[in-house]
Amino acid sequence: MNKGDLVNMVAEEANLTKSQAADAVNCVIDCIGGSLKDGDKVSLVGFGTFTVNHRNARTGRNPKTGEAIQIAAKNVVKFKPGKELSNSVN
Predict the structure, then answer these.
(1) Is 46 inside a domain boundary?
(2) 29 and 5 in a common domain
(3) Which domain covers residue 69, as residue numbers?
(4) Engineering a disulfide at 42: which of 24, 37, 50, 76 sits with its beta carbon 3.0 to 4.6 angstroms away?
(5) pLDDT tens for residues 68-83?
(6) Within a domain: residue 88?
């Protein structure tokens, strides 16, 4: 499923136009991203929790040449599925 498929499903399930559904999906994605950018965690009961983890700078290797390279520090998004979501796929 991609974003377009999700918009179509939301439009169909919620009886909305595709434009309204696209606005709703985009708003949810933007709100989750904004909260994560502010350092908050986002918990959606039954679905899962999004958190931001800091990954320190480290030394890596170029697999092609074997040369040591410096990998910069960065923040990464982590998702832990909720119990209901985990049970629904098993």
Answers:
(1) no
(2) yes
(3) 52-81
(4) 50
(5) 999 999 999 999 999 9
(6) no
Q: How far is CA 35 from CA 54, 61, 69, in A?
A: 16, 34, 32
- Cα four-point dihedral sign 59, 55, 82, 16: negative
Tokens (6 digits) for 12: 């169909």
pLDDT tens, position by position, 28-52: 999 999 999 999 999 999 999 999 9
User: Other C-beta atoms within 10 Å of 7: how many?
Assistant: 20
Give residue 55's region: left, alpha or beta (phi > 0; psi -120 to 50): beta
Please name the residue ranges forming H helices in the chain: 3-13, 18-37, 83-89
76 sits in which H/E element? strand 74-81
Residue 65 DSSP SS3? coil
| Residue 86 domain-assigned (yes or no) | no
Q: Which tokens belong to 66? A: 């074997």
Q: Token pair for residue 38?
A: 């502010």
> Length of the chain, please?
90
The number of domains in the chain is 2
